[in-house]
Write a structure and sequence with these properties.
Layout: H1 3-16, H2 28-39, E1 47-49, H3 52-62, H4 67-72, E2 86-91, E3 98-102, E4 107-111, H5 115-135, E5 144-150, H6 155-159, E6 165-170, H7 176-181, E7 188-192, H8 200-203, H9 212-215, E8 226-228, H10 230-249, E9 252-253, E10 256-263, H11 266-279, E11 299-300, E12 306-313, E13 317-318, H12 322-337, H13 350-363, E14 365-367
Parallel strand pairs: 8-14
Antiparallel strand pairs: 1-5, 2-3, 3-4, 4-6, 5-6, 7-10, 9-13, 10-12, 11-12
Helix pairs in contact: 10-13
Amino acid sequence: MGRTEKIARSIVQAIVNTQRAKKRPSNLLALLLSLLSTIFALYRLALRKVRPADFANLRRKHWGVSDDAYITSFQPHEAETKDEPLKAIGDMGFSGSTFYSTADQRYLVKSVPRHSEHSFFSQDLLTPYVEYMATHRRSCLVRIYDFFAASGASLGRVLRSAPSHHIVMENIMYGREMAKKRGEAQWESWDLKPTSYFYPERDIAGGALTSEATKNKLADEFHDKIILRREQANDFFSSLEADTKFLAEHNAVDYSLFLVRMRAYKQAVNSMSSTAESNMGRRDSPLAPPSPPTWNTGVASVDGKYIFRASILDFFWAKHKIQPRFMTLLINIWNLLIYHHGPMSITTTPDEYRARFLKLCKGIVEIKDD
């Protein structure tokens, strides 16, 4: 069993074991072996849930996800299958994070290896996030369903051979595999953030010092428009303004808008309302509530060509943490002594980043009045 599979199993165990009584070692030898296994674990770290009651409350009362349905997504669908409940989907971006998807595609698990990021979420943002998401039902902030931290001393934590923290979040690409099986057009996605900032990988020596693979991890650009009615656009902008105000108040920068576009087949458009109605009674959907349409579940463009989903991701980079402060100092020295490129997206102020982010989001929308 490889590294990624062992990490995945530690996550699954932390989730599934919350529904079961953990078996205690039956004798002293078994207890000793269990302790040694934990201490010398390199990849399969013992994980604990952080603030489980708060996340359970969000899942049950505000997002309509039952405990049983949530646990089921982290278990094999069929007893005879040998597939793992979590599948690695690779390294995405510069953060060093690894991603897993549940077999049913409903949830993503993202590692949060940087201390500055997981400490910001646990110490500064967690309580405000829980309160905000409970009172802003139409928020575009990604829904976080669980937060895990390594428990106890282990070799893997010391050597950093496995991430010590993970989040479980919604997957707004849910349904893509089913669409592919039906022979529908490939879904498209963009990870959008302001590109006018200084990116060393792109801007130093014209990008000649960096590989194309590295540069491809920079923010995408959406060269099209989301055509919305004025009411839809105002609702979208209102949510984005409230969400980014919340993030700015807590010093977060460098977040992105993850945008998904799928082709709206005629039968899909005609069945959207009936599907929503049929799902109203379902309490197991990670994309609840299905009606009225939200940016989590899908908003149809006015021209009838596409259905869009959108979510704000990666809001764990906070200006007051040590690593961001150090990076800000380095960029300020660079701009002073070498060449003035301006700030990076990770070294600018929260209010300035918010302004550019909102300008980007409003720039990809075209309003069509009735």
